[in-house]
UniProtKB/TrEMBL annotation, chains A, B:
This is Dihydroxyacetone kinase-like protein. Residues 7-329 form the DhaK domain. InterPro entries: DhaK_dom, Dihydroxyacetone_Kinase. GO terms for biological process: glycerol catabolic process.
Length: 330, 330
């Protein structure tokens, strides 16, 4: 295991410490060391915006803490939900008296812990609304969309929710904007190589050399098919087809595109994928308004990439243009 | 080779095409498809700022094109210098009538081609000044600093040079500021795993599992020693020691820190390294003003990280604070 780590059981601890040191102008730790808080939070009279999730997806989730973005983030162990207590503490840290929206991904542990945290917050007198991301098209059929997992579309959801809250909107308005953002997102992942949880010490699943896993999840969840590794052009074409067939957008729709590496994919390969992604999306009569490309939502050292397409409307365009300040260029 | 590529001989072509599509709001291609130009360049009455280098280091070099940053970038084949013609075309694309500064790394091919391009530009009546980055402390002893290679310190050099040019400074003032920036930078790389040139198809050097290469170069150039893989804490301590022993900075000096992944290192491991890097630098009585952390200067899919420390003064602090717009958060 060729990794920069100390005690494998302390990876999250060490990650968060080093992160907060690097970005102390933007974030701080709450009393609970599993909660990262934006320096200016809570902002009186603003809806608080919270997320949380397992570690190992950096810069998600903590890297999106900041101004006009997330006010507080609950940090879980590697690939595991934060505790209900951490979600609760994040909600309290973000609360500026106008309610808190929790924007998180559809995983059993997170669902359970956010639900418990919401009840605890109610006892504090904090009103909480939630939006559950389910943009991963390969994790369940369209007829069971509520079963789908949340993946990189969460970043668009946070950006939209964070921006809406920054405009002074109400809790219901922020919730509705974030819900719309994720409703209009579809994502797919393709894996070329597995990742390793340091405490385990060997890959937690296999991808045979010469093959790829189409539809892989953010923790190596099996996709819809394993097939021989194709060219970047063919892979990109398949990704666009799967995402847009599910999306069913009318011609002329404006979209935002996010191409993210999964941790160990060189950036130039994302550009190579994007060359075809852009052509394929345009060939379907959609208009790409903006493309975000880089390591936005990773899975430790997984080799692979994800594509997210969000269908825009005027409100979403305005919110995407709101200036943010977090640790990533948005 | 588990990679997202098409024809291995077309990697650079495909990379640049996909990059320009993603960032067409910031960059465009020159007539020469091996030259990326900032959309607003050339700016009349502003010193042009140019760099260039081999591909495979994305987001370097092309990703740093933009406002108050690089005006034009010459693109080489993978790990190879751009041609003299491409450097020349980049100089012409950046020329706003006030001269052009070329800020590049100390490699034989780049030195030769920039020199030829400078002569060609002189015939066009364009005055060119150059700064050669040599921040890699392990590539030659301090007594032969002129032999040292340029690595991630180039990013600070570009930021300072680009910002100085944006203030309306003269060619000599921009050159002097960029020269000061790189003179005050020291960098080191540590490699845990090799990278593969797609056209070759197998790693171009070996790092035995369980070992690491201390002082590795950006193309896998051998470092100063191969040793058993240590903990992140020990690695970070060694990196800081090597960089700061060479630097010899007085107590109280303010510094900027850049921790970059080499392409296949998960971001959380850079945070883990930074936890110790920050403590060690502070323990030596230096003051960290800011930390940049992420995949800023990579080497295809190399597993490893670099540390750069730049000693600041008032001018450099002011220039680091100039707002830029390129594809990376600076």
């Amino acid at each position: 295991m060729q990794r920069f780590i100390n005690d494998p059981d302390q990876v999250v601890e060490d990650t968060v410490k080093g992160f907060v040191k690097a970005h102390s102008d933007i974030v701080r730790l709450a009393e609970n060391p599993r909660v990262v808080v934006a320096r200016q939070a809570p902002v009186a009279g603003k809806v608080g915006v919270v997320t949380g999730g397992g570690s190992g997806h950096e810069p998600a989730f903590i890297g999106y803490t900041g101004r006009s973005m997330l006010d507080a983030v609950a940090v879980g162990e590697l690939f595991s939900s934060p505790t209900a207590k951490s979600f609760h503490d994040a909600i309290r840290a973000a609360d500026g008296g106008k309610g808190v929206v929790v924007l998180y991904g559809n995983y059993a542990g997170d669902n359970m812990n956010v639900k418990m945290a919401t009840k605890l917050a109610a006892k504090d007198g904090i009103e909480v609304a939630t939006v559950v991301a389910n943009d991963d098209v390969c994790s369940a059929p369209a007829s069971e969309r509520e079963k789908r997992r949340g993946v990189a579309g969460e970043i668009f959801m946070w950006k939209v929710g964070g921006a809406k809250a920054a405009t002074g909107a109400s809790l219901e308005e922020v919730r509705a904007a974030a819900q719309k953002a994720i409703d209009r997102c579809r994502s797919i992942g393709v894996g070329l190589g597995p990742c390793t949880l340091p405490a385990v010490g060997h890959p937690n699943f296999r991808i045979e050399p010469g093959t790829m896993e189409v539809g892989i999840g953010h923790h190596g969840e099996p996709g819809v098919r394993v097939e021989p590794l194709k060219t970047a052009e063919e892979v990109a074409r398949d990704m666009v087809k799967i995402v847009l067939d599910d999306h069913g957008l009318p011609e002329g729709t404006e979209v935002a595109v996010l191409v993210s590496g999964l941790g160990a994919t060189p950036l130039n390969e994302l550009y190579i994928l994007n060359d075809t992604i852009e052509s394929e999306i345009s060939a379907r009569g959609l208009k790409i308004r903006e493309t975000w490309i880089g390591n936005y939502f990773t899975s430790l050292g997984m080799v692979g990439a994800t594509l997210t397409v969000m269908a825009l409307d005027d409100e979403l365009k305005t919110l995407l243009d709101v200036e943010t300040r977090c640790t990533i260029l948005l």
